[in-house]
UniProtKB/TrEMBL annotation:
<feature type="domain" description="DNA2/NAM7 helicase helicase">
    <location>
        <begin position="625"/>
        <end position="695"/>
    </location>
</feature>
<dbReference type="GO" id="GO:0016787">
    <property type="term" value="F:hydrolase activity"/>
</dbReference>
<dbReference type="GO" id="GO:0005524">
    <property type="term" value="F:ATP binding"/>
</dbReference>
<dbReference type="GO" id="GO:0031047">
    <property type="term" value="P:regulatory ncRNA-mediated gene silencing"/>
</dbReference>
<feature type="domain" description="Helicase MOV-10-like beta-barrel">
    <location>
        <begin position="388"/>
        <end position="447"/>
    </location>
</feature>
<protein>
    <recommendedName>
        <fullName>RNA helicase</fullName>
        <ecNumber>3.6.4.13</ecNumber>
    </recommendedName>
</protein>
<dbReference type="InterPro" id="IPR041677">
    <property type="entry name" value="DNA2/NAM7_AAA_11"/>
</dbReference>
<keyword id="KW-0547">Nucleotide-binding</keyword>
<dbReference type="InterPro" id="IPR013087">
    <property type="entry name" value="Znf_C2H2_type"/>
</dbReference>
<dbReference type="Pfam" id="PF13086">
    <property type="entry name" value="AAA_11"/>
</dbReference>
<keyword id="KW-0378">Hydrolase</keyword>
<keyword id="KW-0067">ATP-binding</keyword>
<feature type="domain" description="DNA2/NAM7 helicase-like C-terminal">
    <location>
        <begin position="704"/>
        <end position="911"/>
    </location>
</feature>
<feature type="domain" description="DNA2/NAM7 helicase helicase">
    <location>
        <begin position="511"/>
        <end position="594"/>
    </location>
</feature>
<dbReference type="InterPro" id="IPR026122">
    <property type="entry name" value="MOV-10/SDE3_DEXXQ/H-box"/>
</dbReference>
<dbReference type="Pfam" id="PF12874">
    <property type="entry name" value="zf-met"/>
</dbReference>
<feature type="compositionally biased region" description="Basic and acidic residues">
    <location>
        <begin position="992"/>
        <end position="1001"/>
    </location>
</feature>
Amino acid sequence: MAQTNCPELLANGVCDDASCPHRHNVLNCALCNVVFESSDDHTAHIASKQHINRLQGESGALLFCAICEKHIPGMKNWVQHAAGARHAACARRRGLNPSIQPEIPEDVPGHTLCTTCKTHISNEHWPRHHLQPKHRDRAQFVAFRTASDEAERDKNGITVSGDFDFGVVEGPAAKSGLELRPTIRNETPSSKIAVLSVTLASQKGSKTTSPFSVSATAATITYNATHSFIVKFRQDYNGRVEDRLEILFEDLQLRKRFIIARTLHVVVGNRADHEAMRPIAPYVPRKRNAAQPELDVVEGVAPPSLKAIPYVGKLPKAPIPAGLAATLSFNGPTASIIGDLRPQYLPYVLDSKTYARHFKHLLWIEEYRMERDLEHYDIIGAKLVGHNGFHFLDVPGLAEKRPSVLVGDRILIQKQGATHGHWFEGGVHIVQKEEVGLRFHPSFRKASVADRYTARFKLNRSPMRRQHLAMDTAFSEERMLFPLPAHVPKTPYPRPAGAQIKVFNPLIKENGPQLQAVVSILKRKPGSVPFVVFGPPGTGKTVTMVEAMRQVLAANPQARILACAPSNSAADLIASRLVGALTKDELFRFYAPSRHKEQIALEMREYAHATPEGHFSVPPLARMKRFRVVITTCVSASVVSGIGIGRGHYSHIFVDEAGQATEPEVMIAIKTMADGKTNVVLSGDPKQLGPIIRSAIARELGFETSYIERLMAREIYDEKKGYGTSVVKLTKNFRSHNAILKFPNERFYKNELQQCGKPSVIDSFLQSPLLPCKTFPIVFHAIAGRDAREASSPSFFNIDEASQVKNYVETLRSDRKFRITDADIGVIAPYHAQCQKIRNTLRAVAEGVKVGSVEEFQGQERRVIIISTVRSSREFVAYDLRHTLGFVANPRRFNVAVTRAQALLVVVGDPDVLGLDPLWRSFLNYIHNNGGWKGRAISWDPTAPVAEDGGYDHTVREAAQRDMNEFTRRIEALTIAGAEAIQEEGDGDDTNVDRPWNDTE
């Protein structure tokens, strides 16, 4: 048996060292710590006594097969399972190597493993666990799977042979029709077996038509005789189809009936796409090992850019309190942790006196989660390449900010085999597309090319410390933090008719709400309550903010404006609208020193300032004070107070896209720079996505509620009562065709939005051959795919949907009548893995198409938007609605996704999954009733009223349970022996893998 000590062996058994002779075929047994050069040796080892004894000694009774996604009781059954045809067929269907090791469940002290629920139950609750509804549902599901396994077993001398898995079938072949001829054979001497019926499970009470059909005749089969029947398949659209074939037999001598069942599988789609996007390895949840403590860290060399700004004070350290960290470290339910920490750390009432304490603790809770999430990106076995005094480290996912690394961050490095707890800190000096350049303390020595390291990313605490600094300031005016009706003047608000202003943007003159917002901002007295520009999608809130800024500057030569936005892209948008209107002596765009010039548009560089070494910085204090407008991100707004500009210097603070920032982020500008006369103007839309919060605990405690959203829940910000005095809602939509706008308009904006887009843009896809209804520019393409995961990533992807998205992009780009460029198309998917699959499959087709998450598209628009919803789980019985729908079941994400399109919206998804959510069900009804439906037929009545309180998952679950009960009872009545119990895999708590990181510096 060949062995090697190859140091580059990865978890999937592939060597990553190009110089290693075993690179392409090594396999390993992590349990026995042995490496093999061939799959034959590996397979033989798995069946050997050495491996089996080791496995039985450590595994207990229950083993898990990651390919078949089932639990196998005992090693003997595992060996039989791994050598079985069903395991091999499942591996072939998923494109995986069948030679895998079983996973070993871990014991949990003080708990008992419920093998039915695949959950560890505390011994205290164990006696009552079996009475819980979820356990009973699981037990019922296990009984069904047991009955299914029993039904699929050949029995009583009868064998049913044939390949019931059609595999991946190209669309034209599926449309023409396929058929197979299974064979029934009697292998019992002197017996006579009657074939009474051959039926499909889908034919029993289903309202939909199955693409399968069966042609079979009754027959009596004697010893060694055979009997055949025909199964046909025909379907006009892509997607996965599964059905259960049930053959009812009777032993004429024993007068005993029994069933043999077979599962029919077909995948209609592009075979090359399915081959290219198949999972690279079975999904195995990443086991988080306890992070090795950092006992001795040798400080690295920080980049010179960190000293580019002449700060006059220091940020507070603001470490997480030890007691709070200990509470957060408890590995228990979110509700339980909140119950422990709320009375200890959070104030009972949130007011101006408790404000700082409340938000400082939310900041610490969020920081704790961010640190834990960074552990996901630890690199084991990393290489360091020295060049020109730097050590370069490859960082997978760097280009997509997974993890996000900026100049000035820190990465800890430990040589494999080094002293426990001893680390070297590397200061990040260079950030490139796939690697970072680090500088270490001179004592760091790289011994040889073969050295391997563990790399650990450390959270840059500067953004958090800036927010703590803001919370620690004494500014806590009620009219700013908790405005009341008493803070609002009783006099009528200023009307545009009497304002006598000359607008800079002529379009605003014809837009009543925009003009009212500008006038209300312009005429406000110093020290007024914050003013809110409520801007639904495509209504021009940034245009309104820029016009208001220009009017303020024109009316008051002493006015000074600090303008902020949550991201650099949003801040650049404000700056670009002011370029030309203001000179370089009036407008300053501050960029953090961590950025480099290549990231900045040429027109913006003239309005920025850099040191002689080329690092972004600030000009001398005297010049900084002369700028009439300073633009920065919310987090970087601390620079103005940090360099010594006094409180009250800025008469106005504008915050655009305020709904995307946390309240402490917005407060960096307000609490450090505002005084009793400062006016604050916020723009945003609380109906769209809020700030990105990684901690579920912080979200539950309200950290996801932005400052603008909290204000708009107060009495004075009622859209009607406060109109013109504290809030103006913009209502003219300049983005979308009315068919695209109509549904979110009615759902989220009281049907007040008006279509005002250019007909040449919003009508450009009417009559397109892509549209089922030529006057309705929305398509829902119904497809039954499969959501899958691979390797150790918990992020979902769906090959069927990704292939269908590719088809749409190819069709759009090849249409010579409805011409469109890559830049006109956007693809939105809620899961990072799906974005990667779609990007890869589009690389040779339309590389310029942007593919990203909902968060990445907020504030953006495209002529065509294609949405892939991904989730296509059929595990309604085993899991709840949250598990089945995941990120898709979120009204704000839905609102942002469907309002990005100008002329054409295409949604690709599984209606049977999406229809479980009332919001999605209503939207699908809207599309179907307007003729925009493609693909598989709708499975419910689209004209029936939608139950807004939901419950559709319960309806589906009950129907599935009825089917399971009926099938289980029939099998139990017809069979003697049972079969092994099978359970489905649970889901790990790793949802943040798909949550992007904030664009903070």
